[in-house]
Amino acid sequence: MKYKLIHKTIYKYPSLVTGYQSLLCLEPKTMLGQECESFQLDIDPAPAEIVQRTDFYGNSTHYFSLHRPHTELSVTATSLVQREAIADVKMNPAITCKEAKDLLAHDRSLRIKMLEYMLASPMVRWDEEIVSFAKDCFEDHRPLYDCVKTFCQKIFVVFDFTPQFSTVNTPIKEVLAAKKGVCQDFSHLAIACIRGLGFPVRYISGYLETLPAPGSAKLQGSDASHAWISVYIPQYGWCDFDPTNNLVPGSRHIITAWGRDYSDVPPMKGIIFSSGQQKLKVEVDVIPLS
Amino acid sequence: MFTEATANLIQDYKNTLHSYDEVLDSKGVIKPHWMALFANLQRLGMDDLVQRNQEVIAKLKENGVTYHVYESAEGPARPWRLDPIPFLIEQKEWREITLGLEQRAVLMELILKDLYGPQNLVKDAVIPAELLYANTGFFRPCTDLYQGKGPVLSLFAADMSRGPDGRMWIVDNRTQAPSGSGYALENRLVTSKLLPELAEGMHIQKLSPYFGGVQERVLSLSERGEDSSNVVYLTPGPRNESYFEHAYLSSYLGYTLAQGEDLLVRDSTVYLKSIDGLQRVDVIVRRIDDDWSDPLELREDSQLGVPGLLQAIRKGTVQVMNPPGVSLVENHAFLAFMPNISRYFLGEELKMPSVATWWCGHAKELRYVLDNLGGLIIKKANRKSKFPSIYGRMLTAKDREILKRQILRAPHDYVAQEEVSLSTTPSLVEGKIVPRNAALRAFMVSDGEGGYRVMEGGLTRSSSVKDRFVVSNQQGGLSKDTWIVSDELERRNEKIKLPGLTVAPKQVSLPSRSAENLFWVGRYCERAMGGIKFMNILVNVLNLDRNFAGTSKPDHIKVLLQTLTHLTATRPGFLEGNAESMDPYPEIIDVFINQGRVGSIAASITYFLNAVGSVRNQWDIEVWRIIDQIENGYSLTQKSEAVTKHNVQKHMDSLYSNMFTFLGVVAETMPRDHSYSLINAGKLIERILGKLTVIKYCFCLQQQETAQEELVEAVLLNQHLLVNYRQLYKSQMHMVPMLDMVLLEKAHPFSIVSMLKELDECLKSLPRTSEKERLNAAGKAILKALSTVELADVTQLALVYGGGERQRLVDLLERLSDLVKQVSVELTNLYFSHSFMQHSFVIPKEDDEI
Asked: CA-CA distances (angstroms) from residue B28 to B14, B31, B166, B433, B526?
C-alpha cells in the first residue's frame, strides 16, 4: 500500500513571538516492511536552517529555529510511504512466557540489548496495582505472543476511547482508575504492565489510516497521529500490537519513530520566546494512493 | 626542619583525642608540620586566636561571602564559615594523593567516552547494563557530544576522607558543576591576610596554578584565540546555593557572568544578549546541572537553561565545560566497579581506594547488603532521587524490614556503602581547640592532553558537632583553608603560563539582564533615599509642632502628610478617612518599616538589596562593606517594636547616610562604563520623578501665607537648596524665587534642569543600538523635557486660578514627569529584554481549535 502523508500544524499567537526553537520527529522510518520514498518539510515563516539528525533510537529528527518576530507559524510535513501488508504474514511464535523470561534472564547479550525497554522510563512507571491489571492475561505456559494479544484485547474491552479525558501528562494510575483515555494512554498502560511482568516493550509513534463510515466521504484533515506498542518476542523479534483498536498493526499503520515512551519521540516540541498565549491546530491526512 | 613546639598547646590537644587524628602518625607521634603549626598557634596565643577568629567572621561577612541554605529559618543567605585553623597535608603524602586523584579523573574521562560511545564496558561485562540504562544521568540526546578527539571532562572534583588505616579514600565524585574551588580561594585569601603568623616556617603550595590551568583549558577550547574569544560563566542565578562562588570566580577568571536567559541560540550558535547587541559566545563554563541545560532536548520545565544549546554544541560552534551528560558518572553505583574499570582500561590497580560500595543489582551483593544492613549506609544509585541516605544502625527492627522490602522491589536502584569514619582534625570551637571530623574536596582540571592538574590545596569541611561524620555545607559545617606544606621550598620545573591574569582583559559586554538590574539598583536606591529624605523633613516639622494632637493640624502639616502618601504611593495613608485627626507617627513609621507594604521604604530597600545581589560581580570590596552596613541598619528596623516615634529619625539618618555613601563609593570606585551610566540613569530618573511629585503636591493648591512659607522651606530642603536660597533671599520664603531655584538653578545638582542635563549625558554614554537614528527615543524624550523646563516662566507658574489651583505649574510638572517616565520605558525597550521562555504545545487537543 502506498500513502501520501500530510501532517500540518498551525500555531497562532496573539502577541509577537521573537524566537522559536523546535525539534520535530515526523519523518516516517525506512525499515523492513516500510519505505519512506520522500519527505518534505515546509515551514512558514522559513527558518534559516533545518538540521536533520538521527537520534539515539535511530529515529530521524529535524531541528529548526526562527528568529524573525511572527504571530503565526505553520509546519507541514509531507511524505510518500510504501507499506507492506505485514498483517497477512502468519505470526504465531510459540515461545512461552516462561521460556522468554528464562532467556531474558540468562542470555546476557540479549539482556543488554533489551534492558533499555525493560526498565522504567520517564513516563512509564508501575506498581503492583498496575501490573495486577495484566496478570491474568500472562500465564507461564502460554505463548508470550498470544498473551500480549489477549492483554491488548482486555484493554480494548475495558477502556473507553475518550479524547477529552487525558493530557500528555496524565499518570497511568489515573487512566487505569477512570478506564478511559486515548491511544497514548493505552500504550503507556500496556507498556507499564508488560515491563512490570519482565518483558521488553517499546512505544511506537506513527499514523493510522482511518476509514470513513460506509457510504460517506472521507473528511480532509480527519486522520490523526497514532501510538501503539511493540513487544520483543525472544527468538522471533519485535511484534507490534495496537491496544486502542485491538488489532495487529498491518498496512494501515505507518511508523514514524520508537522509544521507551512518548517523551522520547514527541512529534513536535518547541520553545517560544513570548509573553503571550498560544493556540494550535493540527491536521493529519493519510491518503491511500494505490 | 619545622620549628618544634615548646609549650603545651599541642599536648593538651593530644589529650582530648579519642579517635584517629590528623596530627598523629600511625605510631601516635605528632607529625612535624602539625607541630610547627601548633608552635605558631602557641606563639599567637589563644586569646589572639579567638580575636582573629572574630576578624575572620567579620571579614567574610564584609566580603559578602555566603552559601545559601535551602529552607533555613534564618533566611537563605548564610555567611560562609571558616575555621582559622587550617587543614595540613604534608607535601610527600600529597604527591601520593595526587597520583590517585589523577588516575581517578582519567578513569572518569574514559568511562564517559566509552558509555556515550561504543559502550564496551557494558558489552564486555565490566559493569552491569543497569548502570547505563537505569542511570538518570545518562542523557540519550547527549550521545553525540562525546565523539570528539579532545578530553570531555575538563573539571573534576573528588571528596576524600582518611580511613582508620591512615590512607585517604575517595567517597564521592563531582563532575557536572563541581563547586567549592572559589570558596577554597577565598579561604586562602582571608587566612593569609588575617592569620599570616600561622604559616611561619612553612612553605605552602599556591592555589593560583590550578586557576591558571582552568584559564588555559578554557583558552584551548576556544577556536578564536585569546583576543577575540568570548567566555561566559553560566550560573543558575542568585538563588543558587553557591551563587557567591559563581560571581566570585567569574570575575577572578575574567569571564562574563550570565544566566540562561542572557544567552540565545541562533543558527546553531550561542550569543550573549548584551546592551551592545548580540555577542557570539565561544566557551561556556557551566554551573547549571546537566538536565537543566537545554529545555528543548533535556528537562522541559527548565527556566535556567538555553534552548538549542545541545544543537550548538553538536555543530561545534560552542564548547561547554563540562559538556551536558557528565553526571552519568556521578551515579553512586560506579564506586563499586572502579577497581574492575581501572584494570579494564589501564591494566592497573586503583591508586586510591573508594569507600566500600555494594551495588544491590547482583544477587550475591544483594544478599550481603540485606544480611548486614546494620553496618551500612543505603543510598539510591541515582544521585538525583529524593531518597535520603539511610544509616542502617539507626533503624529499628521493623524499619529494617521495610527497607529490605523496598530494596527487593528494585534492587538495581540501590547501593550500600560502608559507613565511612573520618579522621579528626584540630578545630576552633567555642574558644577551644578540639578534634572534629573532617573531609576534603580536591579539584582537578584537564591539561588537554589526557592528564589532569590537581589544585595544591582544596576545600576542607569539618563538622561543627562532636563525633559527627556529616560535613555538608547544607548542614552547617565549618570550612578550612587547606595547606599542602613542606619544610623546604619545592623547586618547580614546569613553567606556568597565566593568560588573562597578567594581561588586562578586554572590555566585557554587559548582559542585558545585568544592565537592567544595575538600572534598578539606581532606581530603588534613590526611591528609598528620596522617601527617607522627605520623611525626615516631615518629622522635623512635626516635632516642632506637637500641640496639634487631638485637634486639627496646621495646613502645611496636612499638605506635607498628604505629599508623603503621594510620594511613596501608599494610599490611603493621609488622603482618606480620619487622616485629619489621627496621630501621624504610626502611619509614618509603617511607611518606613513595613516591608510587606507596597511603596514602603522597607520594600524599596529590600528590592535594592536584591538588585545589588543579582549583579554582585559588579561591586568593589569597598562597595560590599557599605552594602553590609545598609543590610545591618535595615535589619535593625525590622526587629519588633525597634522603631518608635522617638528614635525613628536616628534610624532614618543612619540608613540615609549609608545609602548616600553607597552612591559615593560607587561614584569613586566604578569605572565610567555602561554599568555606571545605568546606575546613574536609574538614580536620576527616580530622583527627578520624586522631586517633581513633592513640588506638585505641595503647591498645586494655594495655601495661607504662613503655611506656604513652611512648604517653600520644606521643598527647598528636599532638594538640598535651602542654604543657597538663604544666601540669596535671606529668610523670605516666596514662591517665585523658590520655583526658579528648584526648577532652573543650573549651578546646583539637585535642580530639575541640572538633573535632566546629567541624565542626558548618561544616555549619551550608552551604546547606540541603531545607526539610522542619531537620537534614540529616550534621547528625544529627554530633549523635550529639557526644553520644556528651560522655556518655563516661573512667574506664570506661580499664578493661582479661579478655584485656588496652580494649573500651569501642575501642567508643567505632569508633562515633565510623563517625559521622564517615557525615558525609562524607552531604555527598557532599547537595552533590556523582556520576553520569557515557554513551551509550545506538544500534543493537540481536540478543543484547541483556532
From this structure: 10, 9, 11, 19, 63
**Residue A119, all three cell numbers:** 526498565
Q: Name the residue in chain B with its Cα closest to that of A73.
A: B840
Q: Does ipTM top 0.90? A: yes
What amino acid is encoded at B791 in this protein?
L
**Cα–chain-centroid distance for residue A41?**
20
DSSP 8-state class, residue A75: E
- H/E segment holding residue A105: helix A97-106
* A residues 64-103 lying closer than 8 A (beta carbon) to B: 65, 67
Sorted by where each begins, the domain ranges of chain B are 55-332+422-486, 356-418, 516-669, 681-831
Cα–Cα distance measured from residue B7 to residue B538, given in angstroms and rounded to the nearest whole number? 64
CA angle B42, B47, B50 (to 5 degrees): 100
The residue among B123, B124, B145, B843 with the most chain A CBs within 10 A of its CB, best to mutate, is B843
Say how many C-beta atoms besides its own lie within 10 A of residue A169's C-beta.
10
Distance CA A163, CA A165 (A): 6
Which of B599, B600, B631 shows the shortest CA–CA distance to B613? B631
Q: Please give the Cα distance from B566 to B711 (Å, whole number).
A: 15
B182-202: average pLDDT: 92
Render pLDDT for B644-674 as a digit per residue (tens, 0 to 9): 999 999 999 999 999 999 999 999 999 888 9
Residues 100-129 of A with CB under 8 A from B: 108-109, 111-112, 115-116, 119-120
Q: Cite the DSSP H helix spans in B179-299.
A: 181-194, 208-221, 225-228, 243-253
Name residue A36's beta-bridge partners. Answer: A81
Domain boundaries B356-418, corresponding CATH code: 3.30.1490.270
pTM of whole model > 0.80?
Answer: yes
Which residues from chain B sit within 8 angstroms of residue A12, using beta carbons? 850
Q: Measuring CA to CA, which residue among B684, B524, B675 is closest to residue B610?
A: B524
A-chain residues near B315 (CB < 8 A): 51
| CB atoms A119 and B140 under 8 Å | no
A88-264 CATH choice from 1.10.1040.10, 1.20.120.450, 3.30.390.10, 3.10.620.30: 3.10.620.30
B449 phi and psi angles, rounded to 5 deg: -125, 25
Indicate the pairing of strand B256-258 with strand B231-234.
parallel
User: Is the pLDDT assigned to residue B740 strictly greater than 70?
Assistant: yes
B388-409 pLDDT, tens digit each: 889 999 999 999 999 999 999 9
CATH number at A2-84+267-288: 2.60.40.2250
Instruction: Let me know: does B568 contact B601? Beta carbons within 8 Å.
Output: yes
E runs forming strands in chain A = 2-17, 19-24, 34-44, 50-54, 60-66, 70-83, 160-161, 180-181, 201-208, 224-233, 237-241, 253-259, 268-274, 279-288
Where in chain A are the domains?
Answer: 2-84+267-288, 88-264
Q: Give me the pLDDT at residue B302, please.
A: 81
If one counts every other C-beta atom within 10 angstroms of the C-beta of residue A234, the result is 19
The Cα–Cα gap between A270 and A252 comes to 29
All three cell numbers of A217: 466521504
Across the interface, whether the CB atoms of A168 and B842 are under 8 A apart is answered yes
> Which stretches within B276-393 are classed as H helix?
309-315, 334-346, 363-371
Q: Does B301 touch chain A (CB under 8 A)?
A: no
A-chain residues near B834 (CB < 8 A): 275
CA distance B363 to B373: 15
Domains A2-84+267-288 and A88-264 share a fold: no
